[in-house]
Amino acid sequence: MKRLVALLVVPLVAALLATPAAAAPAPDRVQARDVRGVGVWEMRGATKALRKSRAGWYHAWTAEPPAYVGRTRAAFVPMIWGAGSVTDEALASARQHGPWLLGFNEPDLGEQANMSVEQALDLWPRLESTGLQLVSPAVAYGGADAGGWLDGFMSGAEQRDLRVDAVALHWYGGDWRPRRAVGQLTDYLDAVHDRYGKPIWLTEVALMRFDDGPRVPSGKVQARFVRLMSRALAEREWVSRWAWFGLPASAKGASSGLYRPGARPTTVGKAYAALP
């Protein structure tokens, strides 16, 4: 009996020892909850609100975590906002908070990063020098358009042999019927993914109209939208991360924000925190 056990155990142990260790998960392989994030700017009670939101990650349009956010479970993801942000100090700070680095913020808009495609491509090697995985500049619109800003950047990056590991997008829906809005969003994401074939980070998303100044629907509408959207994005495994716009809400009135000053949840904030 002992001999039989030895005959069975020894080959088994040898096989186990010969089996290579499982590879470490790639940085973009995150748990479902960690896919969900939020954009953060200063507000009273920001740290408490971020904790209550149950967000897995956040960004603040900066290369280093803002001082007004304390210790939370949410991971900080750095960003190089525009041409003026490409400094040794900012890149060094971003390097400390990897493994991902978000690229330029809405370079296609004059009131945002306001960069030409050539300028962005010329600066991109500086971002590569961090050794972090790089998410493309986030365009405000037209990410799937042939000849658009993002298309020019991605084509130029390929021609110059520059590294772009994922594509960032922003999307604000003007249709305040939640189910239709989700369909419009996913059509856009599908088209962008079909064009570039890379993971997508949706780093700003909400229902908002800009035809007469920023306007948002009721909290009830936003809440239904975020629930439906979360389910639709979960069906697309190539949507690596998404971030609601944003954590803070105005003290009174309609807002797309999740929490009012003092970490008081809005209707959409309650829906966001309850997401699986």
Automatic annotation (TrEMBL):
Ranges annotated as spanning the membrane: none
Entry keywords, A to Z: Signal
BP-aspect Gene Ontology terms: fungal-type cell wall polysaccharide metabolic process
Asl1-like glycosyl hydrolase catalytic domain boundaries: 51-272
Superkingdom as given in the UniProt entry: Bacteria
Signal peptide: 1-23
Residue ranges of coiled coil: none
Protein name as catalogued: RNA polymerase
